[in-house]
Amino acid sequence: MDAKPAAKKGYQVPWIEKFRPQLLKDVVGNEETLIRLQAIAEDGNLPNLILCGPPGTGKTTSVHALARQLLGSAYKEGVLELNASDARGIDVVRNRIKSFAMNKVTLPPGRHKIIILDEADSMTTSAQQALRRTMEIYSNSTRFCLACNISTKLIEAIQSRAAILRYSKLSHEQILANLLKVCEAEEVAYTDDGLEAILFTAEGDMRHALNNLQAAHSLAKGGGTASASTSLVNQKLVFQVCDQPHPTVVREMIDACQKSDLPLAIESLNKLYGSGYSASDIIGTIFKVTKVHDSLPEGEKLGYLREIGFTHMRISNGVNTLLQLLGLISRLCQMSESKQ
Ligand SMILES: Nc1ncnc2c1ncn2[C@@H]1O[C@H](COP(=O)(O)OP(=O)(O)OP(=O)(O)O)[C@@H](O)[C@H]1O
Ligand SMILES: [Mg+2]
């Protein structure tokens, strides 16, 4: 990990930037994709690339690391980055991209200039159309690297001009290993359940995990509300920072359903709803908790997940009410009762 010099006291650099890997070998997870990128970096034969996958898994990071490894000291002049915050209409494709592609830049032998189009799925279709021919015309001097969340939002013609590399969510072990490194570098005091809570809320998104760790750490250090005994990042603090329904309460609710104890389940649900969470927040946590529930028998768990899925669908279709959740827990109680 290539940490930049420590920030001045009192001023905190976001850890996601401070610990952004500078080289491909430091990017965690997605081994197959990274092996391919590493091979490209070594032999210098860069095709046009599309990197796609969920947020916070290292796409932007890898594409910059690749460019840095390919171009070395010419990285600054040899790379043009355009992301969703730049206007990327048809004019930009016609003017900025073309003029960059035509520029003469001294690069290491055999290397190409690189145009990085980050968040490419937000480019308009007409801009993408304008890009297709441009990609071919300048292919002797320039390569395109596109990063996006959903590859199908890119027009087929662009997809067929590039090699597609896929990223998937990172596993808990991969995120944990990175968190432990950061904790050591930043001298974060933590409890095991605190880190578990971060993994639980991050759902495979490294950016989310690092941001939550940093927020919980600053709260633990200086937040007046934390009691004196907790300069530790523990479970309670993490859920305070992430502001998600507390999984322990949700777990109580599921356990009550398993025992077909409807009044108790309703009580837990009211507690959650009363603390201000919306039905869609709660159903998300119900799903995550049920998925990793260890004492539900397999068959019952499948039935639960099916019902939760249907309720989730209704809620996302707009019926964001307590009644839907009450309906859900009564069906879960009924299901468990018939199993007993
Ligand atoms: N695989 C990874 N290994 C190490 N750090 C990572 C990894 N993925 C993400 N990070 C951390 O998260 C931050 C954000 O990652 P990055 O910008 O690469 O995400 P992204 O995949 O481009 O997401 P988005 O789709 O939202 O643009 C990085 O600065 C880095 O600190
Ligand atoms: Mg990105």
Fold and architecture overview:
There is one protein chain. It is built from 16 helices and 5 strands. It has helices spanning 15-18, 31-43, 59-71, 75-78, 90-102, 125-137, 156-160, 172-186, 192-202, 206-222, 235-242, 247-258, 262-274, 279-291, 298-316, 322-339, and strands at residues 49-52, 79-82, 113-117, 142-148, 163-166. The N and C termini lie far apart (53 Å). A 5-stranded parallel sheet has the order 2-3-4-1-5, with helices on both faces. The chain folds into 3 domains: 30-166, Rossmann fold (3-Layer(aba) Sandwich), CATH 3.40.50; 172-242, Helicase, Ruva Protein, domain 3; 247-339, Zinc Finger, Delta Prime, domain 3 (Up-down Bundle), CATH 1.20.272.10. The chain is of the alpha/beta class and 340 residues long. The mean pLDDT is 89. The structure holds adenosine-5'-triphosphate and magnesium ion. Adenosine-5'-triphosphate binds next to helix 1, helix 3 and helix 10.
Looking at this protein, list some descriptive labels.
single chain, 340 residues, alpha/beta, Rossmann fold, Helicase, Ruva Protein, domain 3, Zinc Finger, Delta Prime, domain 3, 3 domains, five-stranded parallel sheet, 5 strands, 7% strand, binds adenosine-5'-triphosphate, binds magnesium ion
Task: Supply the helix-strand structural class.
Answer: alpha/beta
Bound molecules: adenosine-5'-triphosphate, magnesium ion
Query: Any idea of the CATH topology of the largest domain?
Result: Rossmann fold
| Widest beta sheet: strand line-up | 2-3-4-1-5
Q: What's the mean pLDDT score?
A: 89
Give the helix tally. Answer: 16
GO molecular function: ATP binding; ATP hydrolysis activity; DNA binding; DNA clamp loader activity
GO cellular component, one term: DNA replication factor C complex
Domain AAA+ ATPase: 45-180
Pfam families: AAA (PF00004), Rep_fac_C (PF08542)
